[in-house]
Amino acid sequence: MTATAPEDLFAAVDLARAPADGPAAFGGDLDPGTLLDAYRHGLFPLPAADDYTSAFNEARHEEAVHAGAITLLPGSDHHADPYALAWWSPDPRPVLAPDGVRLGRKLSRMLRNRLEWWTTADTAFEEVLAACAEGRQPPWLTADLREALLGLHRLGAAHSVEVWEDGELIGGVFGIAAGPALSLDSMFHRRPDAGRVAVADLAARFDAAGGRLLDAQWDSPHVRSLGAVPQSRARYLAALAEGGELERPLDTARLPAARLAPEKPRPPFPPGRGRGATAGHGHGHGNGHGHRHPYRNARGGGPDGGPDG
Questions:
Q1: Closest by Cα among 309, 308, 301 to 197
Q2: What element of type H or E holds 59?
Q3: Is 56 helix (H, G, I), strand (E, B) or coil?
Q4: Residue 50: which residues within 8 A CB-CB, separation 6 or more?
Q5: CA distance 195 to 214
Q6: pLDDT (tens digit, 9 = 90+) per residue, 218-255?
Q7: Ordered domains of the chain (ranges, CATH)
Q8: How much is the pLDDT for 266?
Q9: CB-side neighbour CA atoms (13 Å) of 164
Q10: How far apart are CA 24 and CA 64, in angstroms?
């Protein structure tokens, strides 16, 4: 079974003219085929939660629509309210290499030595969706969008990772695979850093399946702490245009989260600079006398949160 969308619906969107920090288009629908086509064109949806938000969209962006900077999608004139559905493509776009997600030293040690967390993929997609929707303001994960995402999940395009502790779901993330990229929509945590572990796990599984790029959608200090690097929208769209599909299905097996934080071998001490030599001679060099290494102590992970802030 495949998802289909109206032919060339998003080809009408001129992203070269679209605002960097505003909607690129309004209108359309949330059918699974439309949704997947949007992600393949570098766009993602932000539905209005209510009539007030829709009216605000129209009042704020109508002038840009008339000027052609924001596209009103074909067929939107017949839609009950085109401003109820916005499509975004921020510039710059924060992206991560699948093997480049940062856990941080403290969390890595805890995963190896204390936390008995396990992860799965595509096992509790609907539960992850519901948890990501809890308490979010504005409530962008509307009932219609959640139904469309469930449709994409059934088609194999929407994926989730779940983090478990003693059988309890304590964190998760979901996103949409579109060609070589996986767009991270939202995450949640019920234990500190469980969302960060979910992102690292989904990245590892996507990497093993042949994926090449993770899209964090919105730039923020949190996604930077995960390892995201801002990339121009043009460059991100070029990567999407290269096409390609996953080489193999995403691994959904139950796996230990500790595998994400392997112990790294310590480099050998240089001749004459070992622990004994440093401490024995008492010259006050190196870390043997409590001096802090400025680079090592400057690094570390940020607070747990979500790609959507």
A1: 301
A2: helix 51-67
A3: helix
A4: none
A5: 15
A6: 999 999 999 999 999 999 999 999 888 888 999 999 99
A7: 14-88 (no CATH), 93-260 (3.40.630.70)
A8: 58
A9: 17
A10: 10
Contact 227, 100 (CB under 8 A): yes
Q: Which of 28, 25, 43, 34 is nearest to 78 (CA)?
A: 28
Per-residue confidence at 172, pLDDT binned at 50, 70, 90?
very high
Return the structure tokens found at 167. 């059988």
Q: Give percent helix, percent strand, percent coil of the chain, each to the nearest 5.
A: 35, 20, 45
**H-helix or E-strand spanning residue 121:** strand 118-121
Q: Residues in the chain, how many?
A: 309
Cα torsion through 285, 290, 291, 292, rounded to 10: 140
Whether residue 182 contacts residue 211, with contact meaning beta carbons closer than 8 Å, is answered with yes
DSSP 8-class letter at 276? H
Q: Which H or E run contains 182?
A: strand 181-189
13-36 confidence digits (pLDDT tens):
999 999 999 999 999 999 999 999
Tokens linked to 270: 């240089």
Residue with tokens 């085929």: 33
Q: How confident is the model over 297-306, as a mean pLDDT?
A: 34
